Amino acid sequence: MRVTHLSLTNFRNYRRLELDLAAGPVLLHGRNAQGKTNLLEALFYLATTRSPLADNDQQLLSWDAAEAGELVAVGRLVAHLEARDGHREVELRLIKEGSSLNGNGSFRREALVNRRKVRLMDLLGTLRAILFLPEDIQLITGPPAHRRRFVDVTLCQIDPGYCRSLSTYNKLLEQRNAVLRQLAETGEGHDVLPIFTEKLAALAGTLFARRAAFFVHVAREAGRIHYEQLTDRQETIRLNYLPSLEEARPGRSREDADGLVALQELDEWLRAGAAEDAIAERYLAALRDNRDQDLARGSTTLGPHRDDWFFQVDGRPLGSYGSRGQQRSAVLALKLAEIHWMEAQTGETPVLLLDEVVAELDERRRELVLDVARRADQAILTATDPGMFTRAFLAQAQRLHVTDGRLERETTQLDPV
């Protein structure tokens, strides 16, 4: 899969951009704050409908358009795709109506595939992309929400059924939590709580099962890549899925040895291919057992919305005991395993988006990443200094210099050395 053309209107610092993109590696280089990362963000946003960098979607509109005082401001992102099953066009529109200065404005998004309006959810999977960011280290060191988002964004690009189940689950979760709060405050709602509980459990069975199947593949590949290609067979990593499927026993936590064993046993049960109905039944029993605690807190304390995962390196939690270099190696292994999983699921390579990642790596890891970029259908990389790339790579890549939202194609031919 690759993007043949990208069109941006009023997106970040691009008032208007029409860009043809080549197959294989594409290198965007220039000084900081010129718009390189914005291009990667635009492509990832088209693939996932979510920005990895903005707090809210209104921030994606160019400042001039958003603050011009016009009644309507529109941002447009359009990508022309070439995939195994043909050509497609995907589009997202960001529409701000009214004034944001007086608080009376409104904002909405529209999605189109081949110029026909679709639901935002139906856009997912049309363009598939994997984004590498220096901030990916937070997958190791950051809060569980970052790690859940990583899994959900990846799965939603491949599995529409998962994404629909996740959306419905989140809505039911809000409704169940509202009933729990109502029960605690007024004592009303006893008749409807079991209904929401049963519906929530049925959807959770799907989410737990599909996350576990994802971890089966990714954990195996990440471990292999880390051991064979990144550490000269010197270090082993294990990716643990920590499903929030049952009530934690006293003292059970990621750092507690007995608790970790219990969670790993649950992980193994899921990875062994437990049926969705069996998972849902087990989760439903846990919700019923946990009812008093949920009432006391006014929220659902178990479920996929509380899942987590983490790496161990040579048997120790990587987030707590690993060096910065070990953490970066694990993240790199994870991302490369993610590519492998997408290829296995779809039969083609996703578009790779690498933002200043090469600068963070030593020579060995840099060569590994560049080799992956060379072999991909399309890989778009950013860098402030093209000198960190080999002459052979630069000769193969489409090279674009980025200056204040303007792109200039470099046509100088380089002989590989």
Structural features, described:
With 417 residues, this protein is of the alpha/beta class. Helices cover 45% and strands 24% of the residues. It contains 14 helices and 15 strands. It has helices spanning 36-48, 63-66, 120-123, 138-141, 144-158, 160-186, 193-230, 257-271, 276-289, 291-297, 318-321, 324-346, 363-375, 391-396, and strands at 2-11, 14-20, 24-29, 72-83, 86-97, 106-113, 116-118, 129-132, 237-242, 308-313, 316-317, 351-355, 378-383, 398-403, 406-410. The strands form three sheets. Strands 2-1-4-5-6-7 form a six-stranded antiparallel sheet. Helix 6 crosses helix 7. The protein is globular, with a radius of gyration of 23 Å. Mean pLDDT is 91; it is low at 250-255.
Largest sheet geometry = 6 strands, antiparallel
Proportion of residues in β-strands: 15-25%
Proportion of residues in helical segments? 40-55%
Query: Looking across the biggest beta sheet, what order are the strands in?
Result: 2-1-4-5-6-7
Specify the number of helices. 14
Distance between the termini: 29 Å
Classify the secondary structure makeup into a structural class.
Answer: alpha/beta
Arithmetic mean pLDDT = 91
- Summarize the helix and strand pattern as letters: EEEHHEEEEHEHHHHEHHHEEHHEHEHEE
Q: What's the total number of strands?
A: 15
From the alpha carbons, calculate the radius of gyration and give it in angstroms. Answer: 23 Å
Question: Judging from the principal axes of the Cα atoms, what is the shape?
Answer: globular
Identify low-pLDDT runs: 250-255
Keywords summarizing the entry:
45% helix; 24% strand; 14 helices; 417 residues; six-stranded mixed beta sheet; six-stranded antiparallel beta sheet; single chain; alpha/beta; 15 strands
